[in-house]
Amino acid sequence: MAKEFKTIDELVALLQARGVGTDADTKPAIERESYYAIVNGYKGPFLDRHAMQSSSGDVYAKGTEFKWMYNLFLFDRDLRSLTFKYLVRAEAAMRTAVAYAFSKSHQSDNAYLDRGNCGEQGRVAQSEHRQAHDASQQEAAGQ
Questions:
Q1: Is there a domain that residue 103 lies in?
Q2: Collapsing DSSP states into helix, strand and coil, what is residue 14?
Q3: For the chain, what is the domain count?
C-alpha cells in the first residue's frame, strides 16, 4: 500500500498526535533529512511495545522527543562516517585473501566459473589439493 503524501507540517502534526514532543528545530530537520529516514529508521528504542499491542499504529513511550530520534540519527551517521574507511580497508583485505586462496587452490582457467569449486564440493576439492600438495612437499623433502 502506497504512503499518502504529507506536507512537512502534517508530518510534524502526526508526530505530535502520536505523543512525540517537537520543537522549532523539528521542521527544518525533517526538511533537510527526511521524516522517513529519521523516524522510521530510529523510532525503535522510543516505541511503547506494550501499548502497541492494542493499537494499529505506532505508540511512543511517554515523554519521547523528536530530537532524541534525530540525535540518534546524527550519531549513527557520524559513526558510519568514522568507521567506513576502516571497513573498506578490511573488506579489500578479506576480498584479496579469499581471491588469493581460491586462485592458489584452483589454478585452472576460469576455475571461478565452476560451481563445483564453491561450497562443500569446493572445500573437499581444496582439502584434496592441500593433501596432494603436502604429500609432494614431503616427497621433495625426503629426496
A1: no
A2: helix
A3: 1
